[in-house]
């Protein structure tokens, strides 16, 4: 949620005329994340999040916005996109696709406690159940093929030890067939900054713009890797036990998933190690751009290569 495309106050006022949101009270850019431009917008009719999509195109976006509407309509704590006065949920601002959603209450947590980890595991299982009735679909743009291509492109820019680690892991991943595991709509980016709380009460899940149809277990692995490891690659076992148990209470993994779990955790760690390396090697321009440390995910990957985290 960095700011790549600046929006002036007059541009915002002109843009908001197409929405039934009342008069503007204030707005500010959100300087977190790395993919889209986001602004908080306050009006006399509510609080909103305005997103300008920097990488996704118009053809991709109906899936994401439709998924959010589906989830919200079925009681899942997702913000539904706001429609314009003529019924559109996707418009244009400063040459970029743009959408408005109502801002959910709550804040993300940097150091989650056991109750918050447990609530997140449960809401992920709920997401997988509720999204099963959504008719749309999209391939994972950062799946196996992306990992292979990105690794190949990055190799000349990396130190020898990083190259050796990535090559070894890609070789090991040949034994993993994610598409043979149970599939469904996944969030694919359920990091701590994408879950909102009021105290220990989970109030919202945001940023569905990596959502796709993929392995359900892979989604759990992504979530565990972010929520249950510190920046030094050390596992908080109590937190991971709480999260996994709450997920299993919503959806029981299969025997094949249990067998594949360790490699799935490694695939999830490799995906974010590579994407952070990509942003590090090829930084993107923007007014407020936050580039995250790739070594945090290198350490998580190395943990999974040397130790086993049980699934349940």
In words, what does this structure look like?
38% of the residues are buried. It is globular, with a radius of gyration of 19 Å. It folds into two domains: 94 residues, Phosphorylase Kinase, domain 1 (2-Layer Sandwich), CATH 3.30.200; 193 residues, Aminoglycoside 3'-phosphotransferase, Chain: A, domain 2, CATH 3.90.1200.10. The chain has 312 residues and is an alpha+beta fold. Helix 3 packs antiparallel against helix 6. 41% of the residues lie in helices and 15% in strands. InterPro entries: Aminoglycoside_PTrfase, Homoserine_kinase_II, Kinase-like_dom_sf, Pseudomonas-type_ThrB. Keywords: Amino-acid biosynthesis, ATP-binding, Kinase, Nucleotide-binding, Threonine biosynthesis, Transferase. It is an enzyme of class 2 (transferase). Pathway: Amino-acid biosynthesis; L-threonine biosynthesis; L-threonine from L-aspartate: step 4/5.
